[in-house]
Design a protein that fits this description.
It is a single chain. The chain has about 550 residues and is an alpha/beta fold. The chain contains 18 helices and 21 strands. The protein has an eight-stranded parallel barrel with strand order 8-9-14-15-16-17-18-21, surrounded by six helices. Strands 1-7-5-6-4-2-3 form a seven-stranded mixed beta sheet. Strands 10-11 form a two-stranded antiparallel ribbon. A hairpin with a 2-residue loop joins β10 and β11. α4 packs parallel to α6. It is globular and about 75 Å long. It binds ligand TNX. The site of ligand TNX has 9 residues, from loops.
Length: about 550
């Protein structure tokens, strides 16, 4: 089907629905699927609807049944199929669908049956997310809605993502977010067919993960005595209230398992060699000076970075070793951004090491530092991810580069042979203001309205197709300097994350801002039912 035909069909669905009793569009999916053919009739979900699934898809089927239970009051039975009886909701693995990849699926709804087919479990899981969106928005509610008729329009969908990395980052270092907030966020990512969550676990203002070998990282490093009020330049003082919090290793295991079931990959980030003050406050021997540091109470780039002593490299590798036990995923983020090298310039040890290695500039030492971590990670079968600054010291081959200072770092990185995740501040910094309304809650600055997020194309025009194949995808950043609560986190994330979900899933040729906006109005009813504190759209 051509994009124009699909657009016409969706417009038609909108029109049909708006003439009926219910004003909302009949089919209103975010992200928009690759192919959708609407048919006549509906499948009605009832208390006796059975869900049958191939054994590998039982977990997805169970999650579906659990998701449908609260609003409908139905406890749908899930089982492996006994014989070839059609009817109900059927989840099936199908080797013939390999062309759609591991995350692709086909969904066929007739009055008798909902048939989900996929090459692999992630695809079947995404089909169940589509299915939920085809039901009335109240399906997302935790409260029972006895009066609603749970119908699904008959249709056929074939779908698969444009990119493999569809992510978000939550900075839990600047403001700690409770485990429950992270679990809810993982559900929200999955609903939007997003598959990656980077946890920014350490920074100058806090260390948020238990490391058994180095307990002071959390005993000392997870608490700051107070926090800067307003922006630094306003000099409005400090709030006088301690802020703290961290995830125990048991918490992390729970988060990882919760995410695994929902096909969300966790990417842990331990910042080095900069953004290290909370760690140095905990273990002063990691720093370059004898100054006694506290966990930072202000924002911005700090000059206190890790020293380059062999004992510090070993310390950080020991931290990574514990991290690898907890996070089974391929990608481990080591930061690498915003590293003022002044302290290395005045450190006799750093200068001696530079002479020994024949380095002329501190940036080479930065490259060496990242290289040491890369050796450690690759020898354990993992891949290092770093912010685009790691290119400056010569990023190690095989490292993934996250382009945050616009997309130019990403372009340079793919040309140097790296895989790239686009996370540019120009399109994906969800800590920036989303409107110029003076009543908008305090944010870090910038301006990133919904429409601009939607406009983003993660593949810059100047790339050849071969280079473009190294763009793994894109990620939305929730830096939390000015996001003190879970509520504010949701306000900054939504609806911009819904726009990003379509950016990374839907083929570029099918994207259309006005169509998205029409679907979004309906989608916000879902977020309301999910009790997400999203930012409302401007009135029309
Ligand atoms: C830059 S993005 C940073 C973060 C800040 C963010 C605020 C990056 C790699 N470094 O430490 O939180 O700006 O927008």
């Amino acid at each position: 089907m051509k994009p124009s035909e699909l657009g016409a069909m969706l417009a038609c669905a909108l029109l049909l629905a708006s003439c009926g009793r219910r004003p909302e569009p009949a089919v209103s999916l975010i992200p928009l699927p690759v192919r959708l053919e609407l048919q006549r009739g509906v499948f009605e979900l009832r208390a006796d609807t059975a869900i049958t699934a191939d054994s590998a898809l039982i977990p997805a089927a169970r999650l579906l049944a659990a998701a449908l239970a609260p609003a409908t009051g139905f406890s749908l039975l899930v089982s492996e199929p006994a014989g070839e009886r059609a009817g109900g909701i059927r989840l099936q693995l199908d080797a013939a669908l390999e062309r759609l990849g591991r995350e692709g699926y086909s969904l066929a709804v007739t009055p008798q049956q909902v048939l989900i087919r996929a090459f692999a479990p992630p695809g079947a899981f995404y089909a169940t997310q589509t299915l939920r969106q085809l039901l009335p928005p109240a399906i997302y509610s935790k409260q029972p809605h006895p009066g609603v008729s749970w119908t699904i329009p008959c249709l056929r969908i074939e779908d698969q993502p444009r990119f493999a990395w569809r992510g978000a980052l939550i900075d839990v270092a600047r403001h700690f977010m409770p485990k429950e907030t992270i679990l809810k966020f993982i559900d929200l990512l999955a609903i939007h067919k997003m598959n990656s969550l980077q946890l920014h676990l350490t920074d100058d203002q806090g260390w948020r993960i238990e490391i058994k070998r180095y307990p002071k990282l959390t005993e000392i490093g997870s608490i700051r005595k107070e926090t800067r009020v307003g922006h630094e330049r306003e000099a409005r003082g400090f709030d006088g209230k301690p802020h703290g919090g961290y995830y125990s290793q048991a918490d992390i295991r729970e988060i990882v398992e919760y995410a695994r079931l929902r096909h969300v990959r966790l990417v842990p980030e331990i910042e080095m060699p900069g953004h290290a003050q909370a760690a140095i406050a905990s273990y002063p021997e990691l720093g370059n000076t004898r100054e006694r540091l506290e966990v930072s109470t202000r924002w911005g780039v700090h000059k206190n970075i890790f020293n380059v002593n062999e004992s510090t490299i070993e310390f950080l590798q020991n931290v990574l070793a514990e991290l690898l036990e907890l996070f089974p995923g391929e990608f481990i983020h080591i930061g690498g951004d915003e590293v003022p090298t002044d302290q290395w310039k005045s450190s006799p040890q750093a200068q001696a090491l530079m002479r020994k290695l024949g380095f002329k500039s501190e940036i080479e030492l930065h490259g060496w530092f990242i290289g040491r971590m890369n050796e450690f990670l690759t020898s354990r079968g993992r891949r290092l991810v770093g912010w685009d600054e790691i290119l400056e010291g010569g990023a190690p081959a095989g490292a993934v580069v996250m382009s945050w200072r616009g997309t130019k770092g990403g372009v340079a990185a793919v040309r140097a042979g790296h895989d790239v995740v686009m996370a540019p501040n120009t399109y994906t910094y969800f800590d920036y203001y989303q409107s110029r309304d003076p009543g908008e809650p305090l944010a870090i600055g910038g301006f990133l309205p919904l429409e601009k997020v939607y406009e983003f194309n993660p593949v810059p025009a100047e790339l050849t197709p071969e280079e473009a194949s190294r763009i793994l995808g894109a990620q939305g950043q929730l830096w939390t300097e000015y996001i003190p609560t879970p509520q504010q986190l949701e306000y900054m994330a939504f609806p911009r994350l819904a726009a990003l979900a379509e950016v990374v899933w839907t083929p570029q040729a099918l994207r259309d801002w006005h169509g998205f906006l029409a679907r979004l109005r309906h989608h916000l009813e879902r977020l309301k039912a999910l009790e997400v504190h999203f930012r409302p759209l401007e009135p029309k």
